[in-house]
């Protein structure tokens, strides 16, 4: 089954309700707001707004579920060192690309 077929089927099933595309829209709360909502750190009125939004927005619903697995402070972004020989290779390739971009032929 192709990806398009799945999309068509889902589209047909949802015709009875307002279709909100499965993506962030201008109306969506920020991820930080959703995270605060998840942690119950929001003022009651904001929490109510987020709750109302979640009823209508599948994307944010999914995001809140994802954020449920997020633990503040446990995620560390340690960038590993690039091995020196790989770094030299990368820089020579990037340098070559830069030179080619500057050339007008
Ligand atoms: Zn949303």
Distance between the termini: 46 Å
The secondary-structure element order is HHHHH
Ligand kinds: zinc ion
**Shape, per Cα inertia axes:** elongated
| Tally of separate helices | 5
Mean pLDDT comes to 78
Supply the helix-strand structural class: mainly alpha
Describe this structure in words.
This protein is mainly α and 105 residues long. The chain has a domain at 3-75. Helix content is 58%, strand content 0%. The chain is built from 5 helices and no strands. It has helices at 3-13, 31-38, 44-56, 58-67, 84-102. Helix 2 (31-38) packs across helix 4 (58-67) and helix 3 crosses helix 4 (58-67). The structure holds zinc ion.
In brief:
The chain has helices at 3-13, 31-38, 44-56, 58-67, 84-102.
Structural features:
single chain; 105 residues; mainly alpha; 5 helices; 58% helix; 0% strand; binds zinc ion
